[in-house]
Amino acid sequence: MNITNHDIECVFQLPSENPITGICRVISELGISVNTMVEIGVASGNSIQQWRHFLPETIIHGIDPWIIDDHYNPDLPDVGFCTELGTTQAEADALYASVIEKFSADTRIIIHRGRSTEHNIPPPIDLVYIDGSHDHEAVLTDIRTYLPRIREGGLLCGHDMGVPGVTAAVLETIGTNGVLLPAFVWITCV
Ligand SMILES: C[S@@+](CC[C@H](N)C(=O)[O-])C[C@H]1O[C@@H](n2cnc3c(N)ncnc32)[C@H](O)[C@@H]1O
């Protein structure tokens, strides 16, 4: 299947659903067992809370540097800007501390502070969700780094298809094998 710009526009016109809900619907419909997953880009941990709700037994690795740098620059709308991070390093540090506190009682949520490429979560991984830097090179790197670590039959997916860097990276890599879901989600079975 080839994803075209027309497909992307059509999917974006579908009634929106929460990104994680949509992915979990696919997991359920395909009967995929998710023992271990990785989320790249945690921010406040909202999506990790949703993964935990739908996947109560899964080991969830969340990776985020909680750092203010050019990959999250409000003046670069093509890259994207995560407002939850704040605008100062002190705010980003406070957000990291709140995430650690939020998940402290759940031993199957493992938070890694650093860039996605700095943490080597060993295979086999059942599901990787890419929602980190939306810079073209960063998304390409995330896809190329994590795709080989996903077991056969697992899922690679991500958020914000439609942000130019994300769209280009997905089309360059998994485009011919991917499917789009509402809420700007792209997903492929490995
Ligand atoms: C859109 S937010 C994530 C939102 C979160 N997934 C949710 O839905 O609640 C993007 C996050 O990616 C993080 N990020 C930026 N570059 C990253 C990298 N190289 N590796 C991992 N995370 C990164 C940012 O610090 C920011 O917190």
The secondary structure category is alpha/beta
Poorly predicted runs:
none
Distance between the termini: 14 Å
Named once each, the bound ligands are:
S-adenosylmethionine
Fold and architecture overview:
The structure is a single chain. By secondary structure, the chain is α/β, with parallel strands linked by helices. It has a domain at 20-118 and 134-153. Helices cover 34% and strands 21% of the residues. It has six helices and seven strands; from the N terminus they run ααβαβαββαβαββ. The protein has helices spanning 5-12, 19-30, 46-54, 89-102, 136-146, 164-173; strands at residues 36-40, 59-64, 109-113, 125-130, 150-158, 179-181, 185-189. A seven-stranded mixed β-sheet has the order 3-2-1-4-5-7-6, with helices on both faces. Helix 5 packs parallel to helix 6. The two termini are 14 Å apart. It binds S-adenosylmethionine. S-adenosylmethionine is lined by residues 40-44, 46-47, 63-66, 71-72, 82, 85, 115-116, 131-133, 138.
What is this entry, summarized?
Helix content is 34%, strand content 21%. The protein has 6 helices and 7 strands; from the N terminus they run ααβαβαββαβαββ.
Question: How do the helices and strands line up, and which of them pair or pack?
Answer:
Elements: H1 5-12, H2 19-30, E1 36-40, H3 46-54, E2 59-64, H4 89-102, E3 109-113, E4 125-130, H5 136-146, E5 150-158, H6 164-173, E6 179-181, E7 185-189
Parallel strand pairs: 1-2, 1-4, 2-3, 4-5
Antiparallel strand pairs: 5-7, 6-7
Helix pairs in contact: 5-6
Bound molecules: S-adenosylmethionine.
